[in-house]
From TrEMBL:
PANTHER family in the cross-refs: OXALATE-BINDING PROTEIN, SLL1358 PROTEIN
Protein name: Cupin domain-containing protein
The keyword Metal-binding is assigned to this record: yes
One GO MF term: metal ion binding
Methyltransferase keyword on record: no
Gene3D superfamilies: Jelly Rolls
Cupin type-2 domain residues: 38-101
InterPro entries for this protein: Cupin_2, GPI/OXD, RmlC-like_jellyroll, RmlC_Cupin_sf
UniProt keywords, alphabetically: Metal-binding
């Protein structure tokens, strides 16, 4: 048996991201799920782009603040304690709006883990 305890604040932030990202699953040695901790200040978004995944299911558990998620069907406001989930091929962009009163902290879970199946989504097309 193998167990791991991970403190996200002790991990290096991933460079070139629009907000603070810590890869929890990598630190824990998990291979079948992607788990990341995001902290977005007002005006920052979580992913690199408005996107969808071809195969990955994705869920955002909001730890603090209110997460905003733009979708083709409208915008969702997800308060602390709630979860937003996107099925494969469901376009979304998670962010913290410019006028937010505080940062939003989120644990994102994706399965299967897929660093290369994110497809940019153009809301104008």
């Amino acid at each position: 048996m193998e167990y791991t305890v991970v403190d996200p604040d002790e991990l290096e932030a991933v460079e070139d991201r629009p907000c603070d990202l810590r890869r929890l699953s990598d630190a824990a040695g998990l291979e079948n799920v992607a788990i990341n901790r995001f902290r977005a200040e007002p005006g920052e978004q979580l992913p690199l782009a408005y996107h969808y995944h071809e195969q990955q299911e994705e869920a955002f558990v909001v730890l603090s603040g209110t997460l905003h998620v733009e979708t083709p069907e409208g915008e969702f406001e997800v308060p602390a304690g709630d979860m937003f989930a996107a099925q494969p091929e469901s376009a979304h962009r998670a962010y913290n709006p410019d006028d937010a009163e505080s940062a939003v902290e989120v644990v994102a879970i994706g399965a299967p883990p897929a660093s290369d199946d994110a497809v940019p989504y153009d809301a104008d097309e």
